[in-house]
Amino acid sequence: MGKNSSKTKTSENAKEQRSKLPKAVRRFLNRFRRKSCKQEIKNEEETTGQDVMHPDSTWHPVTRSEEGPIISQVSQGGLDSPVPFKVEDCTLESFETIKILGKGNFAEVSLVREKNSNKIYAMKSITRHRHFDEDYQAEINVLEITRGRKFLIGLVTHFETVDMAYLVTDLVHGHDLLYYLEQVERMSEDCARLYSAETAIALHFLHQHGIIHRDVKLENIILNFEGHVKLVDYGGCKFNIPGSTRRHMGTFVYMAPEIITGEQYNHAIDFWALGVVLYELLTGNNPFIAPEDCENEKTYVTQAILHKFIEIPRYLSYRAGSILRGFLKRNEKERLGSCPHFGYANIQLHPFYYNSFSFSDLERNMVEIPFKPPSFKI
């Protein structure tokens, strides 16, 4: 009793001290704790986690017998946007670096200006590593496919040196969703609905082309100046559908249970991660992140993803709670969006989205945007 009381008191003190820190420092600590696990971990042991979530009540997914009349009502994928300008035969000397936008384990993203056209782009500089050949070629292929697509970015050009490889892509003028979430603590259901729907459209396009994103998270969803999202960072993408893979990839607190246990997985992991993103937008918290006083963060997160009861706050609407339970099903076969034939239709027809807008209208810019960010200064 006394030991638990002492631990609770310590946790409360840590939270109080953290709340007194400047916002910029808190933002840095949040990003530091969201560690990326982009190395291969060979784990062939199979561990099963019991699904202890609330049972879903009134909403039921589309069945095969209902597919015919229903499927015509829903959108089948993102519309083409104008194909961006493409630069040919470029080298590193063709670009002037303006500033560094971000750094990862093996890559750095910079804001660059193409000297001949004076146009601004994003350049990803990649250090050669263990899985370089596989990952680099996959990212090029994905960027070629996504070029000119709504809610995704496309390739402008690519080239290599002895030690490095460079990908030049469309520039998204804006910040990631984590940045905006930190300004407001938690977002309205209207904003969360819009951003998660646009991300689902982007994921559906990738899945249609046999691609799993594998690193869906707040930091990889950028909000542009029009108030629409762009799903970025295709370095972890896998050409896999139909089929499955085992490679341990992504950001730990967004990993689906089947990744953690070393089982074969498929595109359903992207919808689990989308569920985690939606939970964060609606509540301001990641359901699996370890407390600050946790001694073994990796063990805590592992057990939380596999077994933790995921509490749905009472202030959320019934529809919001229902879709969170749908995305965060530990059994991937029951997970919302997992069915290869009509999983995307199930997402669109869920009351959380269907009662507010159609995905087709969203793709045609016919849905009112609840928030337009201020101008992004270069």
Automatic annotation (TrEMBL):
An example Pfam family from this entry, by short name, is Pkinase
Residue spans making up a coiled coil are none
Family annotation (InterPro entries): Kinase-like_dom_sf, Prot_kinase_dom, Protein_kinase_ATP_BS, Ser/Thr_kinase_AS
Keyword annotations of the record: ATP-binding, Kinase, Nucleotide-binding, Phosphoprotein, Serine/threonine-protein kinase, Transferase
Q: Kindly indicate whether the keyword RNA-binding belongs to this entry.
A: no
Protein kinase domain boundaries: 95-353
Q: Which residues bind ATP?
A: K124
Q: Region (Disordered): which ranges?
A: 1-25, 39-63
Q: Where is the composition biased (Basic and acidic residues)?
A: 9-19
**Listed Gene3D superfamilies:** Phosphorylase Kinase, domain 1, Transferase(Phosphotransferase) domain 1
User: Per the similarity annotation, which family is this?
Assistant: Belongs to the protein kinase superfamily.
Q: What is this protein called?
A: PRKCZ
From which organism does this entry originate? Answer: Cordylochernes scorpioides
Q: Lineage of the source organism?
A: Eukaryota, Metazoa, Ecdysozoa, Arthropoda, Chelicerata
